[in-house]
User: What shape does this take?
Amino acid sequence: MAKQALAALRVLVIDDHATMRKIIRRLLSQAGIVNVDEAGDGQAALDHLRDPQAPKPDLILCDLHMERMDGMEFCNIVRRDKFLHDRMPPIIVLTGEQESIALEVVSELGVALVVQKPISAPDLQLHIEQVVGFSS
Assistant: This one.
């Protein structure tokens, strides 16, 4: 994918750890993606997505385990909410979860991809290109 196309993407990062959001932002920056919004949990992400003034993302990177509202509940609400579902960009779940049943459940919630942490910038870029329909 051309750097210009990546640079045009807007990404919403959902993670309850500020340090992890900073790391993901750095990985995205290495891929040329600088239009990044952040949410500290699924509820904050829903508030962002429902806000008519907030910029709409082209892609969502979501952690699985978070306080208040985790990634599984966030994806489930998005899947069941017609307004959000019809306007929702692809979701990549980034997780350290190893349990296969949890990963299968997440996959059933309509996410585009489930990716294990830790992840490198080149691998993240490859997954993003795959999900948004571009190829190198």
In short: The CA atoms of residues 61 and 71 lie 10 Å apart. Residues 18-30 form the longest helix (13 residues). The domain at 3-132 is CATH 3.40.50.2300 (Rossmann fold).
